[in-house]
Amino acid sequence: MADILTPALGESVAEASIAKWTKKVGDAVKKDEVLVELETDKVSLEVVAPADGVLSAINADEGDTVVPGTVLGAVTEGGAAAASAPAPAAAAAAPAAAPAVSGGAAVDIAVPTMGESVAEGSIGTWLKKSGDKVAKDELLVEIETDKVAVEVSAPAAGVLTITASDGATVTPGQVIGSIAASGAAAAPAAAAPAAAPANTGSAQAPASAHLSPAVQRVVSENNLNPASLSASGPKGNITKADAIAAIGAAAPAAPKAAAPAAPRADQPREERVKMTRLRQTIARRLKESQNTAAQLTTFNEVDMTNVMALRAQYKEVFEKRHGVKLGFMSFFTKAVVQALHEIPAVNAEIDGTDIIYKNHYDIGIAVGTDKGLVVPVLRDADVLSLAGIEKGIAALGKAARDGALTMDQMQGGTFTITNGGTYGSLMSTPILNTPQSGILGMHNIVQRPMAVNGEVKIRPMMYLALSYDHRIVDGKEAVTFLVRIKELLEDPARALLDL
Predict the structure, then answer these.
(1) Tens of pLDDT along 323-348?
(2) Can 474 be counted among the known catalytic residues?
(3) Which of 330, 341, 315 shows the shortest CA–CA distance to 365?
């Protein structure tokens, strides 16, 4: 018999609560299969089976508090083999059932690991239904977590059976379906070879199986034919950009499709849609930020004349040399890093009664996506050139929009920059990305009359907003930080001369 023990919970974490058992007493388990989820005040932990066998005892119920080393339950080794022993006898007693599985055993479709501290996810929309034939590595479903979307592909070719419906909550390792890898998919083709030439025009139809839920929505709303779309995604998948690009080509047919429009009276006046896990997490974290930090925002404005002139002068040669466009984000990132060097409190965080000063500069860049706002992190921005910053931001932005960000890319930032100006925002008060102590809001560049050396001149002006945690950053430090950014942007030579 093997005990199931509470593992070490991490530095300064003394206890945890039982969140959920994934098995019950008497269930067969496999070694390293997730049995129970623990929650601490910082992270969620998974406890796995120490051996193959049968879960013979559960000593701590859901909601109980446990400490490292507590025996949560026990696994009787070898029980799984004993439980399956009668199977051959049953098969011998019912030989008529043998032909149903003679072609091969079913292959389980299991929920993959979804990242550190991610304990569960929600089933999105299945791209196939039970009984459909699928090919190996064909995309079947997306699982949404509170941070990323995880794609689940077919582990083998065969016939699909779904056991977890759309919207169901699942955990890593949970079986959500199976594939009868019996070669049944190949049989119809061999049985009717004469019909193959007649159907050659629809041979591209399986491309619809590579549509993620977001792409499926664009295709269905715009009456697109998936077989006619070019696929630029990994493994030959069609991306949302591919579908959007095809809308223009399909536009001439829109008047015919629009003829049978339904009357407005037939449309529901309200629609209730369950929030995605990402949206739920955004809501929870923003409210926690407001409840935890003493947030205050200070404003200033910056004359963008010199930065815009510098960008206009060198943007073409910059792009030819580095293969990336020269934008404003690199100038702002450089200015922020230099200001953080001078005002370290803005690059710090509070942990209990301690202040942790960060000697690294990992800048979070807020990116708006179809599913919500995410903040990937640009690592070690202080050692990057303007070109390195632009390349890093471009790569993070693309990964965010494609839903391909990893957990590591969204954790550990020390300061955040958000650019509402790309959407036309004139001014805002950003909410802190806790536990960070500062966030800079960029806004729209607007031509305004300004007094310059006693004369009124039209200048491209941008409002800047710095939200900060007043528990750790004093008003003087916040204002000085924002003024320093203003100085570096209005006179870019200062950064070059280290002034």
Answers:
(1) 999 999 999 999 999 999 999 999 99
(2) yes
(3) 330
